[in-house]
Amino acid sequence: ADANGVDLTQFENWYLQAGTPTVKASGEYNAEAQTYTLTMEQTTPPTPKQSTKEPFHIPVVTGLLGPDGKEMVPSQVLELTQEKQTFVLEGVTAEPVVSILRGFSAPVKMEFPHTDEDLAFLMAHDTDSFNRWEAGQKLMTKFLLELTSDLPEGKPAKDATIELPATLKSAIGTIISQRDMDKSLQAYAITLPAEGTLQQEMEVADPVKLRTARGLVIKAIAAAYKPELEALYNELAADPEKPYTPSKEEYGRRSLRNTVLRYLSANHKEDTEAVAELCFAQFEGADCMTDKLAALGCLVDIDSPRRAEALEKFYEAANGDALVLNKWFSIQASADREDILEEVRSLMKHPDFTLKNPNRLRSVINVFATNLPYFHAEDGSGYNFIGDCILEIDQLNPQVASRLCRSLSLWKRYNENRQTLMKSVLQRVVDTEGVSKDTYEIAFKSLQ
Prior knowledge:
By secondary structure, this protein is an alpha+beta fold. The protein is 51% helix and 12% strand.
């Protein structure tokens, strides 16, 4: 294949070879020559029927940022076609910070020895949106995993606080203060990695400590930048004189404002009524479902009369609409509340709940299974509840029951106690007389 004089024959390896390449890169700055030498090496692990791999053609878009945050060397496409190659970038007048694999230019795992300071710099200044977000995710992931590992067992004190690393704190402050930044990117950039994503990085996952760590970081950010967040939230309020419009700009505004609301509601246990009133005001004044659900999502975590009032209003406004009612159920099942299992059991007794409607049961039972610290409660109550549901649903809809059974299949990720409890529920499913073939197969294979 040929395009504008470039031989693209090697691109065919992406179709002929399985596996995801890993690219390990390193760089060296030469102040005298004003050059930056970037070395990249690609490896792809063997897969069935392919023990050895030919090099892929990997386009690695790379730029260099100067100390002022501006591009010293703009984006260039470096064509990695050999197992190991070296590229020399010229006109580098100061020690740069490397922005590599810009725009996720190739589906590879990129490894580059960025320091925490480098990641914070890229998070605050990179001109490439993807790499700016990615740098922040890496920096926040590293801190969250370290914090999770250091936390003592048990629930933290109500007034527990942590100190944010200066690098992370500064980068987040820079993003919050920028008014010319794309608002959608701004929202993503200050959003912590999801619990499910973080669990994948842990050798032994601890959902309870992970939720605690994530909550402490959110509270620390909210406390460090409370005036700035409040000002930003007020600036992003919708113009009451303008009608709702589904534009890109409005989507970004709503996304950022709702992200900021989540931070402002982080201290709801210390300042319950003030936070509840803030969330309820948005709920009442919302001109679209996105804003209403964002406010309700904060309210369901808060012990305030406004919680019940908002839920009742939302239910009445749904007026029997199945999709809206599913949202009403799911947002309650996902709440961060100590009594969530009792709440879920109560929701299952609601007149509008039925196990015969797959979407309705998923909105409660499957959502609870993704509410990780409560599903993975150390006493096994979450697992036993899901086990009971699997067996009951199996009599009505084996396919739905078998999919729910998968929530117990990743038991090897957890500590010995959780493993034992999860396996006992899977064994109970396997041993149940009359269980469907679909559900039996998933439970049996999960135990292997």
